[in-house]
Amino acid sequence: MLRLTILLFLVMFVIGTDTFLISPLIPTLQQLFHIPTESAGWLVGAYALGYALFALIVGPLSDGWDRKKVMLCGMVCFSVSTLLCGFATGFWSMFLFRFLAGVSAAFTAPQVWAALPALFPTTKLAKVSGIVMAGVAASQAFGIPIGSLLASIHWSYSFFTIGAVALLLAFFIYYALPEMKPDQGQQNQLRLFSRYIPLLKSPLARKAFIAHFLFQCGFFASFSFIGKWVTDRYHLSIDQVGYSMFFLGLGNIVGSLCSAYMIKTFNRFNTLVAGILVSVACFIVLPHLPSVAAFEGVYFLIFVTMGVAFPLIMGLLISLNPTIRGTISSLASSTMYAATTLGSWIAGLIYASLNGFYAVGLFAAGCFAGSLLLFIFSGILAGDAKTKKESAQ
Asked: Which domain holds residue 319?
């Protein structure tokens, strides 16, 4: 089990590094390709758009396929498309290659989450989920700074390195991951988009997914322009931005590794409510901080809460219907990347026209507040709230 945990951790590490790499590179790519600020968000949004569109198709199909083969094919295509990013010659070629990288990631990352219940016993799921999520966190702590340092030599080196490592991981997926074929009775039971009908008909599921959308929209609107903000406000170089990302990524690692303990100690309801409220306060004060150290300290706290909240939210969503885990996992990922597309686009517009990161911080805070209200009123956390109330009586 340790070997599989490490492999899935590394898959999420590489995909996470590629997902977030553009943020510190935005100032460099803007100058190189002569991209205006209001369009710069699409350097992030192109990847997210490809992921969001194709995850909706891959999810239902993957419930009827061998998840190992889906993950393997996705990883190989992810490697090739990421390598191509290093050969981009302008905005539109970078947009295309980033879009293709997002499409490839849509075949890979959701299979990781959907495969966990098939590979690990129920008693280990919370712990393993936290470790796998820590792969995304580690990509922010180590992958992005390493990519930024490589990019300080030449911007393309980071893409070449990620593409090469992804190809190596595809080799290990082929040899180490067991086959995960669907049950014969369920293989073709539902047509492609019929698998979404149970979710669309459920008021609880609809509200929970909208809450998930708002949560991710707020976070990625803010995250997409961290690199530009610290460059504009504190005049950091690209390698200094990478060091900043390292510190923030450590916060995500801490949160991910502590997620299972926090949920066990305080239950899901209290953990999610406290985490989101803390993040709302942080987003409001973030643009007003006078120094890089203060900015990083507050954003570190946001990343800790993200590390705790994200595995919790994914667990809540996947538990909605155990028979269509692949569909739910892909829909959750698609929702996240659709939110990334919208959030980064809105952030680019308001950053350019409404007083920079001040407006972005308020937008993120509003999204988080709306997300919390929807999670509470959806009823998906009702069991935890009831348990807490009964224990207090």
From this structure: 2-180+196-392
DSSP per-residue codes, 284-323 = HHGGG-SSHHHHHHHHHHHHHHHHHHHHHHHHHHHTT-GG
Residue 62 lies in a domain: yes
User: What is 95-106 written as a DSSP string?
Assistant: HHHHHHHHHHHH
* pTM recorded for the entire structure: 0.73
3-class secondary structure, 34: coil
Q: Which pLDDT belongs to residue 167?
A: 94
| Alpha helices (runs of H) in 154-237, residue ranges in sequence order | 157-176, 197-201, 203-224, 226-234
Tell me how far apart the alpha carbons of residues 195 and 86 are, in angstroms, rounded to a whole number.
38
| pLDDT tens digits, 293-340 | 899 899 899 989 988 888 889 888 888 877 777 678 778 878 887 898
Residue 186 domain flag: no
Three-class SS of residue 82? helix
CB 84 within 8 A of CB 133: no
Asked whether the beta carbons of 46 and 157 are under 8 A apart, the reply is: no
Q: Which of 132, 110, 108, 128 is nearest to 120 (CA)?
A: 128
The tally of domains found in the chain comes to 1
| CATH number of the domain within which 292 lies | 1.20.1250.20
Residue 188 lies in a domain: no
Q: What per-residue string of b and e applies to 58-71 under the rule 16 or more CB within 10 Å gives b?
A: bbbebbbbebbbbb
